[in-house]
Amino acid sequence: MNEKIAIGCDHAAFNEKEKLKLYLVEKGYNLVDVGTNSLDSVDYPSYGHKVGLLVSNNTVDKGIVICGSGIGISIAANKVKGARAALCTSQAHAEMSRKHNDANILALGARMTEYTEIINIVETWLKTKFEGGRHLKRIKLIEI
Asked: Would you call 109 exposed, middle or buried from its count of C-beta atoms within 10 A (0-12, 13-18, 19+)?
């Protein structure tokens, strides 16, 4: 597996990001870690933007962003043209975000979702393919 994934987080999700990095490397993914690199307080938009830019300019195949709730960092990532970040709190969300929305960034909430469920969501999101077809027209309508 040679898929390249950018990963970024704020201080609230640092521990989850570090565990998730180990898990993904073990599964054979290539990672680009944009930070943060400690529990020191930082501003989540910077990390959402960094991941969004790497995804939108095709430096990486997909991205994962994590903050306390997942909300702020997903909003920040979605400000980057070409980024489609989906905040997923279940495997069903993860599956649909890929199948119908071709989400290229997965957003997670470290304070809202147990780590074991984060792993399940990530696995589902990474293995699910975009269906294309009628959904492609709608994806093209997202950007204005």
From this structure: buried
Tell me: the pLDDT tens digits for 60-93?
A: 999 999 999 999 999 999 999 999 999 999 999 9
| Residue boundaries of the structural domains of the chain | 4-142
- Looking at the domain 4-142, which fold is it? Ribose 5-phosphate Isomerase B; Chain: A, (3.40.1400)
Judge contact between 70 and 109, C-beta under 8 A: yes
Active site residue 100: yes
| Whether pTM exceeds 0.90 | yes
Per-position b or e across 116-132, b if 16+ CB within 10 A of its CB: eebeebbebbbebebee
Which one of 9, 11, 49, 67 is the catalytic residue? 67
Catalytic residue status for 67:
yes
